[in-house]
Amino acid sequence: MIIKTIFKKIKIHPFFYLIAILAIITGLFKQFLILSTIIIIHELGHILTALYYKWQIDKIIILPFGGLTIFKEFINRPINEELLITIMGPINQILFYFFYNFLFGQNILITNYHYGILLFNLLPIYPLDGIKIINLLLSKWISFKMSHLVTIFISIIMIIIVLILSLIFKINMTFLLILIFLLVKIYSELKNHHYLFNKFLFERYLYNFSFNKRKIIKGDKIKKMFRDYKHLFYIDEKYYLEREILKKKFDFK
Question: Which residue in 227, 190, 198 sits closest to 78, CA to CA?
């Protein structure tokens, strides 16, 4: 039943079909098949860990250079859960690679694709795993709003560096299309920043999340709110619960 449900959520990006046709025409279908297998193994790491923590999967998008598993979940789920879901993609890929080598010996083509996908996915650029890991680690030390803005800034800097290097080394058309896809995703992340922040706050207003850690914020500066923390706001020598402060923001009356 779970497998059937997951299959229903898989969406193949049109770009994937385009690359598949080009691979057949150019006689590179074997390479394309290896690449696709590694991508699926990588994505299974995210999916199986998410199922373990009972996260709701919205859709799984398969691209020719990677996959995207999109969740229908609260932003305020524990950071450690999301961190483990994120890192289990690369870890599952690494485990599969060493297991394959143990059974069949090293294959130079598989090795090249394995390290290529692994290193690409760990680049600190949205929506890749590398930037998600950085964002989650930053969220332990700085506010939700600030950590998201910092990771968007890192993505912009990194994509500029990659673009410069690609011009120097004269990239092919496929890589150029990948860069365009990443640029669109970075822009989308920046555009959705205020929506995500308000969603983060609205969840905290609507639901009673249980957090063990507590933080005191001076003034009514909700932009300083953290993930995994309950907050007390110290205003005019009085303490207010975060729901009291958020009620002012979301009191639609």
Answer: 227
The question of whether 43 is a catalytic residue gets the answer yes
Where b means 16+ CB within 10 Å and e means fewer, 89-122 reads bbebbeebbeebeeeeeeeeebeebbeebbebbb
Name every residue whose Cβ is closer than 8 Å to that of residue 149 and which is 6 or more positions away in sequence: 193
The 10s digit of each residue's pLDDT in 102-136 is 988 888 989 999 999 999 999 999 999 999 999 99
Q: What are 138-197's pLDDT values in tens digits?
A: 999 999 999 999 999 999 999 999 888 888 877 766 777 788 889 999 999 999 999 999
Domain boundaries, the chain: 2-122, 207-250
For the chain, what is the radius of gyration of the CA atoms?
21
Give me the catalytic one of 43, 82, 189, 242: 43
